[in-house]
Amino acid sequence: xLNIIFFGGLVLYFLSMFLQFAGMVFRKESxxxxxxxxxxxxxxxxxxxxxxxxxxxxxxxxxxxFEFAAAFSWSIGALLIxxxxxxxxxxxxxxxxxxxxxxxSYAALQPREITELMPALRSSWFGFHIGSAAISYxxxxxxxxxxxxxxxxxxxxxxxxxxxxxxxxxxxxxxLGILMLTITILSGAIxxxxxxxxxxxxxxxxxxxxxxxxxxxxxxxLRLNRKRRGTFLAxxxxxxxxxxxxxxxxxxxxxxxLHSYGxxxxxxxxx
Length: 271
Fold this sequence. Notes:
The chain is mostly helical. It folds into two domains: 1-117; 120-271, no CATH class. It is 78% helix and 0% strand. Helix 2 packs across helix 3. It is flat.
């Protein structure tokens, strides 16, 4: 049942992305409207999936790479829906739908077994720390997507009034992302001290989270103190996304440590 719900959401995300881009290419507004409703249906299925999985596992569904990827995808969807209905940014549909589909597709490639939460992770910081990380990654991902749109629109018409709106929106997304990443790092340090008696262990995940934070802090410095705007910062937002993805995927794959799920499974067996 859980697999049906998950892959149902995945298929709806794909159909939504396909119709969204087809509607843009052929200028069919009715297709983009259908794409949006398909996305909302897919988001509802993903929400239901995470809720049911959490109830089944008797914990928040955030304990492994699959669950975090699903939460990452869900966070992108939630931010997209907020931006569409609250900020009335209809042009963000194609960006957010594609990003959500990309991440949930990665999740589909991961093992989906429900496992018991290891003792070191049974903490009140669990959801706070990992949930804030998912939101921060989602904000950075969307910021990069808006950066791509900025570059494309600028090439067509450098006087387009939407450029200033997109530039400011990239800034707002990155500000949200770095706020949530700051919460992630600080809560992780407190949690690590409780679990392993050390605030900072130079674990690869910790190091790359800090690198990611520094990269986006430089963005804020350039914008707020150096008054940089426009194309340069749009490219900066785009080129920063691979760092986020490496922190999310590459570290767990290439740089095993306390935060890699294979290492956590071994530690769980030892405990």
